[in-house]
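During the no-cost extension, the postdoctoral fellow (Dr. R.K.) reprocessed legacy sequence entries with the updated structure-token encoder. One reprocessed record is reproduced below for audit purposes.
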Amino acid sequence: MTTDSELNTELERTRQALEAWRNFSACHETVRDLLQQEVKRRHGVPSDWVEVLVRINDQPGSATRMHDLAAGMLHSKSGMTRLVDRMEAAGLVSRSDDPSDRRAVLVTLTKRGRRLLEEVLPTLVQVLVERFAAHISPEEARFLGVAMARVIEANERLQQTDATPGAAAGRKTG
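Re-encoded structure tokens follow.
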């Protein structure tokens, strides 16, 4: 049987988690919006193009599979295809068959895409420093990074479990 004290402790913990979630969401939205505005104003390109360039550049050989790109950016496959279509038409990326998996498509930075990324990176750094990093200590940044990574990893594990037939029905919820 749950005591009043245990219930109050759980309610307080939930309240604190909800407050943290609201603050995280508002912070993310605010900084993201400012970043999008500055990238568009200074460089004339949508910020999601820049995110694609950064994600591709961070991969070995500056190439990544279309599926991995879509998953990392939380886009649908069709949405990512349209985005990469526009970027390819602008000469920023190219597509090719993945030699290790004929079913997969690799997206690679072009020279023009790399130049744009080099132009935009100082803006990204400036906005992130001024609008985010300047307002938290290095210790708080590390804590946030570790905490968010733990939440991501836990949810990825739960997603894998949920993908197993019958798994979601058997999981306890309390």
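Residues 134-165 form one domain. Residues 4-43 form the longest helix (40 residues). The remaining legacy entries will be reprocessed before the final report is submitted.
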